[in-house]
Specification:
The protein is α+β, with helices and mostly antiparallel strands. The strands form three sheets. A five-stranded antiparallel β-sheet has the order 3-12-11-8-9, covered by helices on one side. Helix 1 packs antiparallel against helix 2, helix 2 runs antiparallel to helix 3 and helix 6 runs antiparallel to helix 7. The longest helix has about 120 residues. The N terminus is likely disordered.
Length: about 625
């Protein structure tokens, strides 16, 4: 009763659907198929019934009606479960895995492939097990579970190797190379790609050899058939000639006899008969001679044909031997590849051990650098504290690594608001150490009461040289580039000195540039200060003024698309577009412009840009 209800329900579904087709393009009569399935269930042949249900499911699959296909395959699994047909359940599980993969339901797809793997492993269905492992690895790649994908591919590779299935081995090597590439393991990717390329060449060479052998076999068969046909034609011609000669002889006998009876008497007839007998005997001798000649020609032709066939057979035997030799060479190469594979696995284990050691050391180093970052941030101070010195200002700061070689400094000295932007030699840890030295020296110099920008840079250069134990008679390659400005709020004046750094300021919609000196802090000794001093600029800021100090990081950043630098001209254009906005808005626009320009390109250097919107306070006379 259950099966009658089941198939009645199936028929109701089938009637409502459009036509479906099998893999060969033949239309499937759903009603007829279910009727046959019902008949087989009634006869107790459930396995045959599931064959018809599977055909309908495959038709819906071909039509890309995936949910219908899933529905009928699941019903087929239930019937197969009742008769314990595990092989059928394994095959249907593979199909359901592929359908769910087409629907991008990868978790469900993986569940069915694992079911197929379990069943086929139990039944030792090697070829199906290889396919199930490979399909599972494809789904795991979609889920980015690369380690599990690799395990499935290695299981498939082991089975393919035991079967000496070069085609499947080639596929496994190719997919392993692709998976290791996605995992970011370049060395293993290259190793497996080389194995894939080797097997690809072997498989292609084997295929070409098989095609040539099949072509030679077909040619031999064609020549053999042609020879047999020619022999039959010769036999037919010979038989026809014999029949014609017999008819001709009988006709001659009848003609001669009638003439003798009419023209001669008995005695004459006797003489004539004797003469005719002698003539007939001569004719038979002549015919026998011609027959011998024809038979001799036939024997010659037959000998040539037999010789040709023997030659072809010898060639076939030779090519067969060559194929056996090629197979032996392939087996040796396969053994060598397996040996190399085992060596690679051993090397892989050794590399993993070293990798773990390096990773542990890297964690320790990274932890130390992160702690150094906290120290550096504490020395630099909070970015928000700049608002206590300048009412509307912002700091755009992007270290290349965890710690930075760029640093900022701001402080009120003798009633003057002072600001510095510096770029130390290098970046990362070396640059960060230099930045700590620079901040400490600037604080020492300003704490002594010095607020003149040129004098601070001169003292800073001497301090860097002494700290680095440089020979004062030699030019040093270590040091820093810096912009240093001082604002006299009372007199509405700004003072600036720079070491290889420029300062931009915008007044009355015009951008102006104050160029720093072309030497770095610490690049020359104290003896040079007798002839060399830093230039000091003075600017009237009685008008609203936007001031910008920056390191080279932002202008030297490369673009993702054409590998060009941002350049100072592009920075000037950007500042002229945004200077009328608040500091927070300017910072957001600069950050977006920088990110869009960089894209996925690696950051070139530490980036630091400070902007101040200066609004002078005018005294009101009472």
């Amino acid at each position: 009763m259950f099966f009658l209800v089941l198939f009645t329900h199936l028929l109701q579904y089938a009637d409502a659907q459009d036509a479906i087709y099998d893999a060969n393009g033949e239309e499937i009569n759903v009603e007829a198929y279910f009727s046959k399935a019902e008949e087989n269930i009634a006869l107790g042949d459930i396995k045959e019934a599931t064959r018809y249900i599977n055909a309908v499911a495959e038709g819906y699959w071909n039509k890309k009606d995936y949910y219908k296909a899933i529905e009928y395959y699941i019903r087929s699994i239930k019937l197969n479960s009742e008769i314990g047909n595990e092989s059928g359940i394994g095959a249907i599980s593979c199909n359901l895995g592929m359908i769910h993969a087409d629907l991008q339901d990868y978790e469900t797809s993986l569940k069915y492939f694992n079911t197929a793997i379990s069943i086929r492993k139990k039944l030792k269905e090697t070829n199906g097990l290889i396919s199930a492992h490979i399909n599972a690895s494809v789904v795991l790649n979609k889920l980015e579970r690369y380690a599990e994908s690799i395990e499935n591919l290695e299981d498939a590779l082991l089975l393919a190797t035991e079967n000496s299935d070069a085609d499947q081995m080639k596929s496994c090597y190719g997919m392993l190379a692709e998976t290791y590439e996605k995992q970011g393991d370049g060395e293993k990717m290259i190793a497996y790609y080389n194995l894939y390329r080797t097997f690809h060449e072997l498989v292609e060479r084997s295929k070409r050899q098989d095609v040539l052998e099949k072509a030679r076999e077909a040619e031999l068969k064609a020549q053999n058939l042609a020879s047999q046909k020619r022999i039959k034609e010769l036999e037919l011609i010979n038989a026809q000639q014999k029949l014609a000669e017999q008819k001709k002889l009988l006709t001659q006998k009848d003609t001669v006899y009638n003439q003798l009876m009419l023209e001669h008497s008995k005695s004459e007839l006797a003489n004539a008969l004797i003469n005719n007998y002698l003539q007939l005997k001569d004719l038979k001798i002549s015919q026998s001679t011609e027959k011998l000649k024809r038979e001799e020609i036939f024997v010659r032709v037959l000998s040539i044909l037999v010789l040709t066939v023997l030659t072809l057979l010898l060639l076939l035997f030779y090519f067969h031997q060559q194929k056996r030799k090629s197979n032996k060479v392939l087996s040796k190469q396969n053994a060598e590849i397996n040996r190399q594979h085992h060596e690679i696995l051993e090397q892989q284990k050794e590399l993993e051990r070293y990798y773990n050691i390096i990773s542990l050391r890297n964690e320790h180093i990274t932890s130390s650098i992160n702690y150094a970052k906290l120290i550096q941030q504490a020395v630099l101070g909070k970015k928000s504290d700049i608002s206590a010195l300048f009412k509307d200002a912002f700091i755009f700061f992007r270290p290349k690594d965890i710690v930075s070689g760029d640093f900022y400094w701001f402080k009120k000295v003798n009633g003057y608001a002072m600001l510095a932007v510096a770029d130390c030699t290098g970046h990362g840890v070396p640059g960060a150490l230099m930045s700590m030295l620079g901040i400490n020296l600037i604080n020492q110099i300003t704490n002594s009461g010095i607020h003149e920008v040129d004098a601070i840079l001169e003292q800073l250069s001497i301090g860097v040289n002494k700290a680095l134990n440089e020979n004062v008679n030699m030019v040093s390659s270590d040091g820093m580039d810096i912009s240093l400005l001082c604002i006299d709020e009372k007199n509405k004046q700004m003072y600036f000195s720079g070491a290889k750094h420029n300062l931009y300021y915008i007044q009355d919609k015009k951008l102006k540039v104050l160029k720093g000196d072309r030497c770095s802090i610490g690049s020359y000794g104290a003896s040079h200060f007798k002839t060399k001093r830093f230039t000091k600029y003075q600017v009237d800021i009685s008008l609203p003024t936007s001031i910008y100090a920056f390191s080279d990081g932002i202008v030297d950043q490369f673009n993702e698309s054409d590998d060009k630098k941002f350049m100072r001209s592009r920075l000037r254009s950007l500042l002229l577009r945004i200077y009328t906005k608040t500091g927070a808005e300017q910072k957001a626009l600069i950050s977006k412009t920088f990110n869009d320009w960089k894209g996925r390109q690696t950051q070139t250097d530490d980036v630091l840009l400070i902007g101040v919107n200066w609004q002078p306070i005018h005294e009101v006379m009472m």
